[in-house]
Amino acid sequence: MIHFPAGAIDSPATFVYQPLHTPYHGERGLVFAGQSFTLEAYINGEHLSPFVFDTPITAIFTYTNADVAGIDEADLQLLTYDTATGSWTTDGITVIEHNLDENYLVVTLAHLTEFAVTAPGDPLFLPIITQ
Predict the structure, then answer these.
(1) Position 115 pLDDT exceeds 70
(2) Phi, then psi, of 75 in degrees rounded to 5
(3) Which of 31, 36, 83, 125 is positioned for an S-S bond with 121, CB 3.0–4.6 A?
């Protein structure tokens, strides 16, 4: 769920949320916890990039126990992909609440780009065996 407070933008806009099966950009040292997406803004059909909010928006991410199997749930974070540096970062993201019992993470976002719920760690790659 995403909440746009009054004053977040100064003119009418269309926001497009696009869930991703896996992030467009991977990074060693991160495990993705079932949620990655892009959030983009358009005004009069024109794509705005980069887009920075006047007042940060609030986003709530829920996840299942299966999403965090094998990772430390307490380490979950939302990261944003910085195309200038080619890395994942927390820039423009503030964690408001992380409820481990009810499996949700509440954050504010200052800008739009590609996002992913992650935890530190190395993904486990299993060999593919075919007959």
Answers:
(1) yes
(2) -90, 0
(3) 31
Collapsed DSSP state (helix, strand, coil) of residue 90: coil
* pLDDT for residue 125 is more than 60: no
Intra-chain end-to-end CA distance of the chain, in Å: 44
Separation CA 8–CA 18 (nearest Å): 20
Instruction: Provide the token pair at 107.
Output: 């954050």
Say what the pTM is.
0.81
- CA–chain centroid gap for 61, Å, is 9
Nearest CA-CA partner of 31 in 121, 124, 113: 121
Bridge partners of 48? 41
Helix (H, G, I), strand (E, B) or coil at 108: strand
Domain boundaries, the chain: 2-120
